[in-house]
Design a protein that fits this description.
Elements lengths: L1 H5 L8 H8 L5 H8 L3 H13 L2 E3 L7 H10 L5 E3 L11 H8 L9 E3 L8 H8 L7 E3 L7 H10 L5 E3 L8 H10 L5 E3 L7 H10 L4 E3 L2 H11 L4
Parallel strand pairs: 1-2, 2-3, 3-4, 4-5, 5-6, 6-7
Helix pairs in contact: 2-4, 3-4, 5-6, 6-7, 7-8, 8-9, 9-10, 10-11
Protein name: F-box domain-containing protein
GO biological process, one term: SCF-dependent proteasomal ubiquitin-dependent protein catabolic process
InterPro entries: F-box-like_dom_sf, F-box_dom, FBXL15_LRR, Leu-rich_rpt_Cys-con_subtyp, LRR_dom_sf
């Protein structure tokens, strides 16, 4: 009886309720500390990760190992953001490969790899190849090529929006292939790419309702379409 009276109130909570509390913790550092308190809390933290529908690592000092481990425990995950920031993650192609093995990847509807210049087509293709439910993808600021676009087109039939901001190595061939296969695509950001006005005309010919950014380029497309053929 005396032992029960000395026990902290929070330690009397069932694991299920502890997990519910840990879901509201946004600091991965705090979660790691909580996990090291005792075996019961460790189980609670693991269960809380399994319930999360989104993970955002921007601003956190994560690496391949820690990121893959957290994603691996997030069985209910729907949105994954690994955007680069000044203090952000250090993710490589190996990290993307390990993340691609997580059980949740097939259920993801949104992925952001914004600004990761260190990743290549190899890592992106590995990750995308299992993301069959993906609807929104942000790979702006990366050095991907048409190889990634071909993989996205083949693996993501539900894709609705894609951000290719400043992806200077994608070409007209890859973009046309992507838009032609992803018939649900509604929005594409091509700001800073090196494609011509003819490419924009080709994309709109395939999908007239497609919203292309930057919007100003559409004025040029309209003018070009009205010019007589010489």
């Amino acid at each position: 009886m005396k032992k029960e009276e000395e026990e902290a109130e929070i330690d009397r909570l069932p694991i299920d309720l502890l997990a519910h509390i840990f879901v509201f913790m946004t600091s991965f550092t705090d979660l790691a500390r909580a996990s090291s308190v005792c075996k019961k809390w460790k189980v609670g933290v693991k269960q809380s990760l399994a319930r999360r529908e989104n993970l955002r690592f921007a601003g956190w000092k994560m690496d391949d190992d820690s990121t893959a481990r957290l994603v691996g425990h997030a069985y209910s995950l729907r949105e994954l953001e690994i955007s680069r920031s000044r203090w952000g993650c250090q993710i490589s192609d190996n990290g993307l490969y390990r993340i691609s093995l997580a059980k949740c990847i097939g259920n993801l509807i949104s992925i952001s790899l914004w600004g990761w210049t260190g990743i290549t087509d190899n890592g992106v293709v590995q990750l995308i190849s299992r993301a069959n439910s993906l609807q929104h993808l942000n790979i702006g600021g990366t050095f991907i090529t048409d190889e990634s676009l071909y993989a996205i087109a083949d693996s993501c039939p539900q894709l609705k929006s894609i951000n290719l901001w400043s992806c200077r190595h994608v070409t007209e061939n890859g973009l046309l292939f992507l838009v032609n296969k992803c018939r649900k695509l509604k929005s594409i950001n091509l700001w800073g790419t090196r494609v011509s006005v003819d490419c924009f005309i080709g994309l709109l010919t395939i999908s007239p309702a497609l919203q292309i950014k930057p919007e100003g380029v559409l004025l040029n497309v309209g003018v070009a379409a009205m010019l007589p053929v010489v």
